[in-house]
């Protein structure tokens, strides 16, 4: 039995048909689709698309799930797909998923389709929907947030990778009585994608920063201040850069790259770690490449980061910790208005089972210097 279409603002969800085959092949062959949907055949052929239309999509409905073509209401052209899988009737639960064709991206198609199918599922008695994304798939995570899904954690090595291995999956969920979205974000995007004081620029850390970030976090002076004080591996740096946007979206940390405002050269990294959201407190950290130290760049970065934290995030307090002997970092904090608050003995792990003290600094909105 062919399911009736679901009409929604900007999209129509309907059953797949033979006329969709060419667009299915194009959409499923797209490199971005292939990258994040490991279960797709590669290469994806016309025979695969025809089997989907004739067999796999109808079977989804008979097994308690759903598989809809997402189409343009005006032209009926395929824009993508959205569906329900892994139903657990005893729990009133299912998993929702989607892909969007290259020619339809950036138009809110995935958000509209996900909201429409979620509302349809809830009206039919579903109590909970899960949405799983790759850690690196920030675009899909933005769709989840826009459609009212909230982050719940990471399932370690939950998905097999094409060609071998496994990868983590982030879990997002929406309950039947949750608002349709967008879900609240503790850490908003930077205004215009950047912060600047005219001398330096802060922007979100990303994969393009991996080479310079690796140099930074293997620099001996930076390594001495790491916890524990050991060099970062290339794999750790790559994962950090690829996952930085995801950490930002879930509200854990805002990791940024510091750039020289004139040349655009990489200067270093800084971060706001939202470690105490219940009391609106966060920690900041920063590191600079050797050639950029001693010119006030770290102080400028701390001021920009702090002002954004107070004005845009709504923080009530910032704190930072340094090794007692790190006089240069302490001067940076004091120039930005931080006040020394005390010493936590044995707070930081060392390299051989020993412990190191940490000098704690705090900043209130009224303390911040210009």
UniProtKB/TrEMBL annotation:
- Mind telling me which InterPro entries this protein's record contains? Acyl_CoA_acyltransferase, GNAT_dom, Ribosomal_N-acetyltransferase
Instruction: Mention one GO molecular function.
Output: protein N-terminal-serine acetyltransferase activity
Name of protein: Protein N-acetyltransferase, RimJ/RimL family
> Please, which domain of life does this record's source organism belong to?
Bacteria
The answer, when asked if Transferase is one of the entry's keywords, is yes
A GO cellular component annotated for this chain's UniProt record is: cytoplasm
Which SUPFAM superfamilies does the record cross-reference, listed alphabetically? Answer: Acyl-CoA N-acyltransferases (Nat) (SSF55729)
């Amino acid at each position: 039995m062919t399911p009736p279409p679901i009409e929604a603002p900007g999209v129509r969800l309907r059953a797949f048909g033979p006329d969709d085959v060419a667009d299915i092949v194009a959409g499923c062959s797209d490199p971005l689709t292939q990258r994040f949907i490991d279960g797709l055949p590669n290469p994806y052929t016309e025979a695969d698309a025809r089997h989907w239309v004739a067999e796999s999509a109808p079977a989804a409905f008979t097994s308690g799930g759903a598989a809809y073509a997402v189409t343009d209401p005006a032209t009926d052209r395929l824009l993508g797909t959205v569906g329900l899988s892994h139903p657990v009737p005893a729990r009133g639960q299912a998993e929702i998923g989607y892909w969007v064709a290259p020619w339809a991206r950036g138009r809110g198609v995935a958000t509209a389709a996900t909201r429409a199918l979620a509302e349809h599922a809830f009206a039919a008695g579903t109590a909970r929907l899960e949405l799983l994304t790759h850690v690196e798939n920030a675009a899909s995570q933005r769709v989840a947030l826009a459609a009212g899904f909230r982050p719940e954690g990471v399932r370690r090595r939950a998905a097999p990778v094409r060609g071998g291995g496994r990868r983590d999956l982030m879990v997002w969920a929406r309950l039947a009585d949750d608002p349709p979205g967008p879900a609240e974000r503790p850490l908003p995007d930077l205004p215009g994608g950047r912060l600047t004081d005219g001398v330096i620029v802060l922007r979100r850390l990303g994969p393009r920063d991996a080479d310079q970030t690796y140099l930074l976090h293997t620099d001996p002076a930076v390594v001495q201040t790491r916890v524990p004080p050991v060099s970062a591996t290339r794999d750790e740096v790559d994962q950090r850069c690829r996952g930085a946007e995801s950490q930002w979206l879930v509200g854990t940390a805002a990791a940024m790259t510091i750039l020289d405002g004139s040349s655009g050269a990489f200067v270093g990294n800084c971060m706001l770690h939202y470690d105490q959201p219940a009391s609106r407190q966060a920690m900041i950290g920063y590191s600079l490449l050797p050639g950029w130290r001693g010119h006030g760049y770290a102080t400028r970065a701390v001021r920009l980061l702090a002002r954004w934290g107070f004005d845009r995030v709504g923080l009530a307090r910032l704190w930072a910790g340094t090794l007692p002997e790190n006089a240069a970092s302490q001067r940076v904090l004091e120039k930005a208005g931080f006040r020394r608050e005390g010493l936590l003995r044995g707070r930081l792990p060392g390299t051989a089972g020993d412990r190191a003290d940490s000098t704690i600094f705090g900043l209130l909105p009224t303390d911040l210097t210009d």
